[in-house]
Design a protein that fits this description.
The chain has about 400 residues and is an alpha+beta fold. It has two domains: about 180 residues, Cyclophilin (Beta Barrel); about 190 residues, Protein Transport Mog1p, Chain A (3-Layer(aba) Sandwich), CATH 3.40.1000.10. Helix content is about 15%, strand content about 30%. The protein contains six helices and 19 strands. Strand 1 and strand 2 form a beta hairpin.
């Protein structure tokens, strides 16, 4: 069926019923905010495209992602990479990505959405204006099913350990009046900011009053604030599109350090790194104090990804200011490392502590080189599903 066959639906408040292994999900669509995305979703939902696919990426507290035809019977390493040949132009809007909002997944190219979509589990407003929100969960059972899906056991790359638990059985378009436990429509919460066109899109700015910092993230990279209870997780991470099975990651970790000096921090981190270096899991390439209270470490480590051992390169910059350490880390495969190093540098240069007037990287005096180290493994592995070898 073509888009024209759904002109009736666009005037009848289209509702899509997704039947899954764990229950039903009802999605009410925002026609006025994302007309082309709504048409596309209706076509795919009515022609069986989504049937037998999985929710292949599940991150509790963040979102569940599905709609990839590769998940029907394909190699799990290809999950997240499939979709139709035709891509959609971005229809970014000012709808907030609150719990229950349905939005379109995409690659780094804003105009690359196809069939994959995600449902927000808990408010994730760092996505606002960066992805096309096109619907909302419209029944009590839908939210129960969402919570059930986020509770399943996951493994590498946030994939479900038992795919049959999270399979989409059938999708149909139904009248709103037939929805059991329908939640009456309420205008979605909005940012109040006019979303720019794709030609006007610049690097998104991450700012947190709670963390007291701001910096720019690369366009098209997914900003995440991990649960603070996850050991070793950074305070914020920007995850780039997967290349050769690995997502490049830029992360920031903030820690209280009291009256410690930069040299004391270097010594502490060297002690943490010593075992990994001794076991040949990590090779330190270069270490340098590049500015006053700013220390840089470059290293290569061996990590297991999808049962393969890959060499991952890291660049970490540790900044000491106002009794806190701010550690920026960038990780990527050795072969692809240089592809995004400029994006890391731009994020680093834009970093500013809100209580200070200028960027630390542009206001701090240079310092001579000396030896030392930094703890790279925990933060750099975040978002890439890597296990050190």
């Amino acid at each position: 069926m073509g888009f024209g066959n759904y002109s009736f639906a666009l005037t009848e408040e289209p509702v899509v019923l997704i039947e899954t292994s764990l229950g039903n999900i009802v999605i009410e669509l925002f026609v006025a905010d994302a007309t082309e995305h709504v048409k596309n979703f209706l076509v795919l939902s009515s022609n069986g495209y989504y049937e037998n696919t999985l929710f292949h990426r599940i991150i509790p507290g963040f979102m569940i992602q599905g709609g990839d035809p590769n998940t029907k019977d394909g190699d799990p390493s290809t999950w997240g990479q499939g979709g139709p040949d035709t891509k959609l132009d971005a229809e970014f809007n000012n709808i907030k990505h609150n719990r229950g909002i349905v939005s379109m997944a995409r690659s780094a190219d804003p105009n690359s959405a196809g069939s994959q979509f995600f449902i927000v589990h808990q408010d994730s407003n760092f996505l606002d204006g960066e992805y096309t929100a096109f619907g909302r969960l419209a029944s009590g059972e839908s939210f129960e099913t969402l919570d059930k899906i986020t509770a399943v056991r996951t493994g590498t790359s946030d994939r479900p350990v038992d795919p049959e638990e999270v399979r989409i059985i059938k999708t149909t378009i139904i009248p709103t009046a037939t929805v059991s436990g329908y939640i009456p429509y309420v205008e979605p919460e909005r940012t109040g900011i006019v979303t720019p066109t794709t030609e006007q899109i610049s690097d998104p700015i991450f700012e947190s009053q709670e963390l007291g910092i701001t910096f720019s993230a690369p366009v098209g990279w997914l900003l995440q604030q991990p649960d603070g209870n996850i050991t070793g997780a950074p305070d914020v991470a920007a995850v780039g599109p997967k290349i050769d099975g690995i997502n490049p990651v830029i992360s920031l970790t903030i820690e209280d350090q009291g009256d410690k000096t930069i040299d004391e921090l270097i010594t502490e981190k060297n002690n943490v790194l010593a075992e990994a270096v001794y076991l040949n899991k990590l090779e330190i390439l270069e270490q340098e104090k590049i500015k006053l209270n700013v220390y840089q470490t470059e290293a290569i480590g061996n990590f297991e990804v999808d049962d393969k051992i890959l060499q991952i390169k890291f660049l970490e910059v540790m900044i000491l200011s106002e009794q806190k350490s701010y550690t920026f880390a960038y990780s990527n495969t050795v072969d692809n490392f240089n592809n995004d190093i400029s994006k890391f540098q731009e994020s680093l240069d834009s970093f500013r502590i809100l209580s200070q007037e200028s960027s630390i990287m542009t206001s701090t005096e240079n310092e001579s080189t000396e030896e030392g180290g930094g703890c790279l493994i925990a933060t750099a592995a975040y978002g890439s599903e890597m296990s050190p070898q």
